[in-house]
Structure formats: structure tokens, C-alpha cells
Amino acid sequence: MSASTATPHSAPLFTGRSRLLRLGPVAARVDMRAALITLALVVAALGFAWWNLLTGSSAFGAAEALGAFVGQTDEATSRVILEWRLPRIVFCLLGGAALGIAGAVFQSITRNPLGSPDIIGFGTGAYTGALVVALLGASGMWMTPLGAIIGGTVTGIAIYFLAWKGGVSGMRIILIGIGMTILLDAVNTYLITTMDLQVALTAATWGAGSVSDIAWMHVIPLGLAAALVVPVLIAKQRDLTLMEMGDDPARGLGIRTEGVRLLMVLGAIILVALTTAAAGPIAFVALVAPQLALRLTRSSTVQIIPAAAMGAVLLSVSDLITRLDLLPVQPPVGVVTLSLGGAYLIWLLIGFGRKKAS
């Protein structure tokens, strides 16, 4: 069969109205509206990132910023731009994309717009892991991230297996995840009250979600993980979309439903855990990004690539808001995403209520 012939398992980049595009021996169906919207979101994310690079306590012009990249500016300017601001900006792009992808995966698995890592409790579990490390007095720059990764991963695996009953139901994942979130919130509150005051303040700041101390050592692991995990998730996107019709029809098409579901969950957990390990739990990006991308692209289901682009936009915009001196004290980026996400969640629930009333 030729490369340009579509097969039942050939994965389009998007769903919806599509065109067959060829690049040499490779052919793929692309939803043109979704592709253009995604391209616009990528351009917007890069634009906000550039604005963020120039904005701050020390404002720079475009010429100074470009000069830092080519080594034609003074050492102080280069340090601020390349060592302090650029890692934070790149992390917002990567971390926002990672959260958007994780949200798209979980919303597709649960078949519910509320099925995101925020609601299900993976971020809360990562926070618990970090608090346990702090309470044990473990030191070193890698201990808190390691504790967060372990906490988020253990929480994700526990929720998955607690939801297992001859298979995994999306609603069971959400309900068990909400219960786990409530339980871990209580545990986290107790752990903070038992800590030394200074340690508790540090833990609380980290728990609010902050990118102010991001360095290249935080960006590189996330970038490497994304390079390995994201292509796998994109490759399995079509299988996951077909599974939204139900496991039995998907099995009839030859899809190993539980294997695909477990692979996608693990990939999403890795992305959330690494993002949380570096910046703390950043709320609501994973919840909001897939749904906003869905409404813009008018696709039939949430998609990984548009959700990634929207996540990058949301986190970059939120970080920019924290640095525009709109408030007397610069808030953590998690406070901004929490405010935006809370407003979105209220709007979403009002929409559900109107649909039921009509």
C-alpha cells in the first residue's frame, strides 16, 4: 500500500474537516482550521514569550535582547536575559504545553471536561511528596523535585488501580480522584502545621506554583522528557479518540484499550510530575487549555497538539501578568492561573446548568 493511502489506523494530526497533505513519501490528513488555529496559538505564545523577555524590573529593548543572543552586549545584560529570564520563559512554554497535553489526555480518557490532573489530584499528590521530603529534612536541590515526582506518580498509579473494576471508567477516575484530592489536601495541611515556620513558608510558596526561581536545570529534564513522551502520545492520539466511542467498538477495531489507556496515563503523569517538580502545582492550565482549544478549533474531540499550544499561551500570559506590576506584590504564577481557571470553571458549570435546564 502506498504511503499516501489512508489506512484504518493512519493517525491524522487533527480531526474534523481535513485535507491530505504530502511531504515526499509521507502523507497525513490535516484539519486545516485546527492547523491554522494551532499555528496562531504558537505564534501568540512566542509573542508573549518575547514580551516577557523584555519586561521586568530591568526593561530591555529588542536590540539589547538580540545582542545578548549573539554575544554583542555587556555581561550584566547577558546574564539577566540568558541566565535569569530565558529559562523561565522557555519553562513557561514547555510547562504550559506539558500541562495542556496532560489535560487533553485525561479529558479524553474520562470523556469529561472536568477530567484533568488538577481535579483528579496528581498535582496535590506531587505537593504531598514535596512536603514529606521537607518534613524529613532532606536537603539538596534535587530532593524536592524528586519527592514531587514520586508523590505525583504514586498518586496517579493509586487512582488508576482504585478505579479499576474489570477496566477503568472515566467517571470512576474522576470521583476517586476528587476523593484523593480531598484526602491529600487534609494531609498537606497537617504536614505544614507540623513543620518549622521557615520550612513551612518555603513549602507554602512552592505549593502556590512559582516560576520565579526556574533555571536551566529545571528546563532540561522537562524538555528531554517531552521529547521522549510527546511523540508517543501523539502517535496514540487516534486510538484514544476512537476509544471515546466505547471500549467494545475500539476493541473491534483492534485497539488494545487498557494498554493504550495505561500508556497515555503514564505519559501524562510524567509530564505533570516534572512540571510540578520544578514549579510546584500550577492549577487549572491542564483543565482549561484543552477545552479552549476545542472551542477554537471546533474539533469533535480534544486534541493534543492544539491543547499544547493553548497551554503554552496560558502559562506565558499568566507569567507576564505577574511581572507587569499590576499588584503591589508580585504573585506566584499559580495564583494567576488559579484565578483565571476558577472563573472558567464557574462559567463551565453555569453552562452545564443551562443545558440541563433547557
Automatic annotation (TrEMBL):
It is found in: Cell membrane. The chain crosses the membrane at residues 32-51, 86-106, 118-136, 142-162, 174-195, 215-235, 262-289, 333-352. InterPro entries: ABC_BtuC-like, ABC_transptr_permease_BtuC. The keyword Transmembrane helix applies. Keywords: Cell membrane, Membrane, Transmembrane, Transmembrane helix, Transport. Its main location: membrane. Pfam families: FecCD. It is a multi-pass membrane protein. PANTHER family: FERRIC ENTEROBACTIN TRANSPORT SYSTEM PERMEASE PROTEIN, FERRIC ENTEROBACTIN TRANSPORT SYSTEM PERMEASE PROTEIN FEPG. Belongs to the binding-protein-dependent transport system permease family. FecCD subfamily. This is Iron chelate uptake ABC transporter family permease subunit. It comes from Nesterenkonia flava.
